[in-house]
Design goal:
261 residues, alpha+beta, 8-stranded antiparallel sheet, 9 helices, 34% helix
Length: 261
């Protein structure tokens, strides 16, 4: 009898946990970035002092725009240990970088808008609808982006570089990780952003580019991850349409400056 009691008790707890997890996603709540795993040891973003939590708590962020603030922050955005020389950094710290990150961010915002407003699934903002009855899934939780990336490719002919920018599918990077593609910010000290704000983990690969060879060698040794803070899902979903949601999101988008004190 004791063994049977333990079995059914444990089974009930498991069922309750699974039910809670499912309902959390069904209600449209992304996992919290504050409690997502940041370290290989399994510790969360808010578990101990680290450069990511520091940037959030101290409001170390700039608008997602190519301006003097962006240029002033380039040594933090493009660290030499990954991008190499100052010459390389000057080349990648460009309008094309902002364009590539903005394009991926825009595609996410459109997908989020379609999900919140029960619109048909498409691959792009106002894209071709293959099946009117197939609604957009919750990005990176259900639907196409559990197995597909959101990505963009932008060539910068002026500086001779090219960017491959992407949000990983949830199969590549689960949302239990801080490097999963999307979270709600969650609770941090300071008043930088609302806890319901969305935060994207955007990956960027930079390459040398020329008219003759197109892309050639990689500039950064490994993908650089950028954290983009956006308005909440509720705020984005209230826009008149997908493109208005994109306009709102990009106007308020900020990129965390990691490592600046």
């Amino acid at each position: 009898m004791i063994k049977g009691f333990n079995y059914y008790f444990v089974a009930s707890l498991v069922a309750l946990f699974l039910s809670f997890s499912a309902s959390a996603y069904q209600s449209g709540n992304y996992p919290k970035f504050a409690t997502a795993k940041l370290f290989s040891s399994g510790e969360a973003v808010n578990a101990k002092r680290n450069v990511v939590a520091y940037a959030i708590e101290n409001g170390n962020a700039i608008d997602l725009k190519f301006n003097s603030q962006f240029i002033g922050a380039r040594r933090f955005l493009f660290p030499e240990n990954n991008f190499g020389s100052s010459y390389n950094i000057e080349k990648v710290a460009s309008q094309a970088f902002i364009t590539s990150v903005s394009e991926v961010t825009s595609k996410f915002i459109c997908a989020e808008y379609r999900f919140r407003n029960r619109l048909p699934s498409t691959e792009d903002c106002n894209g071709f609808v293959l099946d009117e009855n197939k609604r957009e899934g919750m990005p990176f939780v259900s639907g196409q982006f559990t197995s597909n990336r959101i990505e963009a490719n932008v060539d910068d002919r002026t500086n001779g570089v090219s960017f491959h920018t992407y949000l990983k599918s949830s199969k590549e990077a689960p949302l239990s990780s801080a490097f999963g593609s999307v979270h709600e910010l969650g609770t941090f000290f300071g008043g930088f952003a609302d806890r319901k704000s969305l935060i994207l983990s955007v990956n960027v690969d930079a390459y040398w580019w020329s008219k003759e060879t197109q892309r050639s060698g990689a500039i950064n040794a490994q993908p650089e991850v950028y954290f983009i803070v956006l308005p909440s899902s509720v705020e984005l979903s209230k826009a008149a349409n997908q493109m208005q949601a994109v306009k709102l999101g990009l106007e308020k988008a900020q990129i965390l400056i990691i490592g600046r004190r």
